[in-house]
Amino acid sequence: MNRSIASTEEKEWRPVLLRVPNGYKRVREVWIPALIHRWTLTTLGLLVLFLCLQFLIPARLVIGGLGAVGRPSVAVGIMLAFLWVLSAVRAHRLPAGTQPIRWVIGLYVGLQLLGNVIGFDRLPSAAEASSADRWLIFTAAIAGVALVTADGLSTRLELDRVLLTVVALASVMSIIGVLQFAGIVDITQYIKIPGLHANADLIGISARGDGGFPRVASTANHFIEFGVVLALVLPIALHYALFSPPGRTRVWRWLGVSLVALGIPLSISRSAILTVVVTMGLMAIVWPWRQRYNALVIGVMATAVFHLVNRGVLGTIRSLFTNAENDTSVTDRIARTDYVIDLWSLRPWLGRGAGMVTPEEYILLDNQVYMTLLAGGVVGVAGLVLFFLVPYLMGRSIRLRGKDQETRHLGQALAVSMPAALMASATFDSFSFATFVGVVCIIIGAIGALWRLDGTSPTNEIQLAAPGDRFVATPLAANFRERIGAAWAASRPRNYGRGKFDKKTPNASDGDASGPSTINTDVTPQTLATRRGRRRT
């Protein structure tokens, strides 16, 4: 016993100068420096960092040697993909339950890897091979963003913060575009970041129409991308404005809606206008008639004010549609169709290789569907459609089965971006623009996160609108038979079906079989009791 105590003391003994005071030992084990503790990176912080790099740094500033895929936001996306894979291979690190977004992203990434193998099998040129490598890097980045958003946000508050960050940064991008349009200052020309250089001249300000109106791109890579991105964010901004609490918060959120909507026509782009029509049209489907009327009035008034402030811009946008047959950007796209069909017929099913169809090697197509058809064939186009279709169906399921009005409305606001983005992809080569793809992947991930946090399942019962719901009407598919029966009963004439009871029948009390009598079907229990009393007397 004494020997064991002595041996323990010998092991613990240290020279006096090397001994650590017990108090300092406790501080060293428990205390964490304040700066390190407060700034520990989380999933929310990494996603906000990704969005800031995506929106605030001009698209053509890249890391040297990587080309267009060298944007700092893409580097963050690669890190997010690595963190998600690291969590996936460790037990119980991903949320339990079904997550359809994982299958969607997994299928899309798998098709790109298959396309890469198919492309290298046909011995591509050096330029095509380099383009394919950059495409795989970009694919990994966007997959990481979508998966981390879907699986990494642990609460509804974190999801709201990510989406509100998207709205805030889109508002800032719109402000930069307004300053460009007004000729005050082009901030993008003064953004210089060490380690980044322009892989091409900044797009700056262009002119369009007979009046030579400025056409701006803000920090985006092109005018079309600028307008389409704002159009995709508009339903989300509108959702948070409609459900904002009274006070200063509501003012700021409606200001965000105004700024996002203001920047869309400044791109002077057909794609942007069509995207707005699709998103707002699909949003109006879930609104009650009163809300549709309010939205129509506000839209008309905002359009009138914009026309008074910027005369001629709306006329130029209108001429983009009415004079499309004389617009070279439209006629050139149509003329390229024969070229696409001829080239596609050579490799119809699996295409020429993912990321290998470039303007330098072929021609500028300005159509993502055409580019996917040539690069991935019919299989690639099917994967592209599923990439947008499955998140849309998930968002619609949240709209039908969400636990409360706000969740159902947010599900619809996220869902409408998917068909709008697919439609826009048929009007320009959308996946060549990182800001567009980054926003789409954040929205796809947000749909997955909302699906998981709300516990949505196709087996859940479709929810009816509560009496106090102002922004979401009862789905048409909810209690369909009962509602049809109630509507039929309400519209049926009041005396419908009473004719057979109104025939003249013998009056038993008079004992005369031929005596006419009319049966009153509106007899009350009190009246029947009175009649029985009379018969007894």
From TrEMBL:
Keyword annotations for this protein, in alphabetical order, are: Ligase, Membrane, Transmembrane, Transmembrane helix
Q: How does it sit in the membrane?
A: Multi-pass membrane protein
Polar residues biased stretches: 515-529
Task: List the InterPro entries hit by this protein, alphabetically.
Answer: O-antigen_ligase-rel_domated (IPR007016), WaaL-like (IPR051533)
Q: Where are the transmembrane segments?
A: 35-57, 69-89, 101-120, 132-150, 162-185, 223-243, 250-266, 272-289, 296-314, 369-390, 410-428, 434-453
State the Pfam families in the record.
Wzy_C
O-antigen ligase-related domain: residues covered: 256-383
- Spell out the molecular function terms from Gene Ontology: ligase activity
Disordered, as annotated region:
495-537
Its subcellular locations are: Membrane
Name of the protein described by the UniProt record? O-antigen ligase family protein
